[in-house]
Amino acid sequence: MKRPNPLQISRFLQVYDHAAIQKGVKLSIGFDFDEYVSITSGIPTKGRTYPNFRPDRSPIRPGDGYWVVGANENKEVVLVEAARLYDLPNSNLAELLESLKFFYAQPSKHAHPDDRCICKAPIARQITGKVAYHGDLWVRKDFRGQGMVNITAGIMRGVSLAMWAPDFTCYLAGRWSVDKRVYDASQCEPGGSILRLVAEGIVDDDWLFWKTGEDLMRSVNAQTETR
Fold first, then answer.
1. Which pLDDT tens digit goes with each residue over 90-126?
2. pLDDT, mean of residues 73-101
3. Could you tell me how far CA 170 lies from the centroid of its own chain?
4. CB within 8 Å of 106: residues ≥ 6 apart
């Protein structure tokens, strides 16, 4: 894919950063996932960060991941989300999920014998190359329903495009998010991750949401051309 124009991405990000500021939220980006886990583990109403964003289970090489944290005027954390790059030149997202390597760098060492992941979403077999996964999203209750998910998604799209120019971006979320239209559901399929991680206490049946790199470029171009 053609490398994106840095100035266009900068303008694109400014739109969403300004929107966050208007809602009283200051966004920051980090790259140290030990720090991210320290931040998220201190949030009492957020579930435990999934193992694919925890260095003790799935280390992320420098340049292959980042996270976004939003704080209110009292410097309280009100939203978090993380992203990492999976390089799949000879594989695909479905294979990565079902092998459990999506979650653990060494499934043979860290996965429980009864851990399972089934991926039934047909598109997952076509998601290959440089794949940017966005996940671990949490928004504090009093900031929900105010467009913060859309703002954070815009920031994540812009940063992932600038850092990686990925072939695909994707995320996983429950059926409730489809019903409530939390995310852009124009490209999603059920059965993205039917998951059981015993030691983590995780049982999921998530839909797979995705965009192509070309989709990202079009969204950046459309946003910046109207300014």
1. 999 999 999 999 999 999 999 999 999 999 999 999 9
2. 97
3. 7
4. none
Residue-wise pLDDT tens digits, 142-199: 999 899 999 999 999 999 999 999 999 999 999 888 887 777 777 999 999 999 999 9
Query: Closest by alpha carbon to 164, among 132, 194, 186, 118?
Result: 132
Backbone angles phi, psi at 174, to 5 degrees: -70, 165
Q: Which residues lie below 8 Å from residue 67, measured CB to CB, with a gap of 6+?
A: 29, 30, 31, 33, 36, 53, 80, 81, 82, 83, 136
Question: What is the distance between the alpha carbons of residues 94 and 172, in angstroms, rounded to a whole number?
Answer: 12
Give yes or no for a contact between 13 and 159, defined as CB atoms under 8 angstroms apart.
yes
- Which pLDDT value is given to residue 221? 81
pLDDT band at 1 (very low <50, low <70, confident <90, very high): low
The strand pairing partners of 129, in sequence order, are 88
With tokens 């289970």, the residue in question is 57
Q: What ranges make up the beta strands (E) of the chain?
A: 26-30, 65-71, 77-88, 116-118, 129-139, 168-174, 188-197, 202-212
Helix H or strand E encompassing 149: helix 148-164
Q: Is 178 exposed, middle or buried (0-12, 13-18, 19+ CB in 10 A)?
A: middle
